[in-house]
């Protein structure tokens, strides 16, 4: 089976925002980049992930003012991770069990990338059909 590291987005390509960034700015960035998640940083260290689902459930659904709500208040932390040598099936199982659509990818416990349900769908779509 294919290892997670083959389909992960490497940390160098993460789109990050500072923890004090307001939710409206973060949402606009997600829209403009056509992405479903951002990483939240404090002093350039990644401390959490903010997803489009977080925005809907934690801002829109409860009526918060997106222009006054910092992403640190909305993010999911800590980021659940999977080691880079685990398989895509392992990642799928962990996402399903944890009800998550994004996993951090780690090397010896250190964050090196991210994999999403979308990445799994791309992989499955490209499998040869019988």
Concise description?
This protein is α/β, with parallel strands linked by helices and 130 residues long.
Strand-helix topology:
Elements: E1 9-10, E2 16-18, H1 23-33, E3 37-42, E4 45-51, H2 52-60, E5 81-83, H3 88-98, E6 102-107, E7 110-116, H4 117-125
Parallel strand pairs: 2-3, 5-6
Antiparallel strand pairs: 1-7, 3-4, 6-7
Order of helices and strands: EEHEEHEHEEH
Q: Number of helical segments?
A: 4
Low-confidence stretches: none
Shape: globular
* Helix content estimate: 25-40%
| Name of the CATH class | Alpha Beta
CATH-defined topology:
CBS-domain
Q: Roughly how many Å apart are the termini?
A: 18 Å
CATH architecture: Roll
Q: How many structural domains can be distinguished in the coordinates?
A: 1
User: Structural class of the helices, strands and pairings?
Assistant: alpha/beta
Main sheet makeup = 4 strands, mixed
In which order are the strands of the major sheet placed? Answer: 1-7-6-5
Average of pLDDT: 94
């Amino acid at each position: 089976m294919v290892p997670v590291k083959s389909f992960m987005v490497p940390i160098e390509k993460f789109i990050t925002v500072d923890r004090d960034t307001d939710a409206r700015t973060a949402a606009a960035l997600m829209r403009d980049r056509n992405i479903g998640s951002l990483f939240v940083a404090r002093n350039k260290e990644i401390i959490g992930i903010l997803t489009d689902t977080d925005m809907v459930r934690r801002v829109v659904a409860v009526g918060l003012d997106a222009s006054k709500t910092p992403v640190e208040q909305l993010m999911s932390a800590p980021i659940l991770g999977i080691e880079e040598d685990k398989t895509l099936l392992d990642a799928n199982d962990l996402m399903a069990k944890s009800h998550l659509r994004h996993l951090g990818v780690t090397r010896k416990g250190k964050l090196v990338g991210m994999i999403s349900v979308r990445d799994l769908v791309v992989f499955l779509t490209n499998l040869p059909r019988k």
